[in-house]
Amino acid sequence: MERVKTKLSYFLFLIILLAASSCNTTEPPPPDGDKPTLLLKLEDVSCTEAWIELTTTNLQLPATITLKQINPTGDTLSQVSILNTKDSLLYIDSLLPNKSYQYQVSSIENLATSNELNVTTMDTTSHSLTWQVFTFGEHSHSRLNDVAIVGNEIWAVGEIYMNDSLGNPDPNAYNAVHWDGSHWELKRLLYQGGFWVIRSIFAFNENDIWFSAFIRYDGQNFIELPIPPILIGWSINKIWGSNSSDLYVVGNNGNIAWYNGSQWSRIESGTDVDLLDVWGTPDGTVWACGYSGDYAISALLKITGQSVEKIYEGFSSNQNNGYYVGPMSGEWGTGNIRIYLMNWSGIYIQANSSNLFLEKEIAKFSDVGFGIDGTDDNNIFSCGEGFVGHWNGTNYTEYPELFKSSRTFLNVSAKRNTVAAVGSDYNSLIYSQAVIAVAK
Known about the structure:
The protein contains one helix and 39 strands. It is mainly beta and 440 residues long. The longest helix has 9 residues.
């Protein structure tokens, strides 16, 4: 499918029509079943952009087409393009949030006019949030690595060191904390009788929550799952799945594994960088990214089933479309057309394609960025060294009330009207507290 980028501007549409009508033809009209047709279908829309699929039948190519846009004010914009393929994806930008537009395509030479397509852009979301900050830990280095929101509940995982009943440091840490809607409860999830630091969590619903790949919570019980040989010896940094029979985990040294509901399979990534995030789109494409331990090399991978396509592996200091590639720390998205790719400096739009192209920067961080999540194109959250930020569909802001020079947020989760960011507050060289900031 050809992707046609358009930015509508004023054209003398009537002159085009008059010029076309003055041309005589002696060719007989085609049979009804062979008449050219044009069909418009909305594929995706944001606050300021629209993606429209143009499907044609019996169109003589190449063809000159005119795309007409009727604005909310009633004025009309038109743009003429050359169509070279049967199906095309029209990209339209510079729209206004929460406005309705009407589109129609015509081809004078083919005597064809499409349906009228109504498109309403998304409204922006509010930056205004009321935050609560909770800290846990009374000695040693406590921190929270990941977080999941499930309905009114919140689960966060990591390691939390508390004092015992006599006030002495308890060497046995907790590795999870749970918010039931009214209070927090520290949890110690053991695996085969031993303690382990949990680095990742993923929740499908309140009755299907994965703590790394080894413990699954069914709403009542924590079920220990056998560790397959392919998962032994490497850290699981992130989990994503479309369901519990289609689950991906990524880790250090380029490790990727996939769970089909009964067994794990190793996926050869073709890279040895530490993979830090994984996320899938509705069309079944799964993205993974990360960077080397010295931050010098970054990688972006596109996974389809059990096949990996390397979109990028190279120096983090390289540039792409005028932007630094940077250490790639996360990706997120809800549609099939593009994803939001995060590096240490900001969030960029990356097309769902086989080439790295940082099309546009939508967020520029005040410090190093580590985590990304959202609910839609107009409600994306980021976090990192001392900050939590929000993209509302047209602009980006950070919350100064959450800033501390010794605070690091590692991951963020957003579901419906709730957002939670987790990490640690470093109070000294030998002491840190786990921190979670929650807003509704």
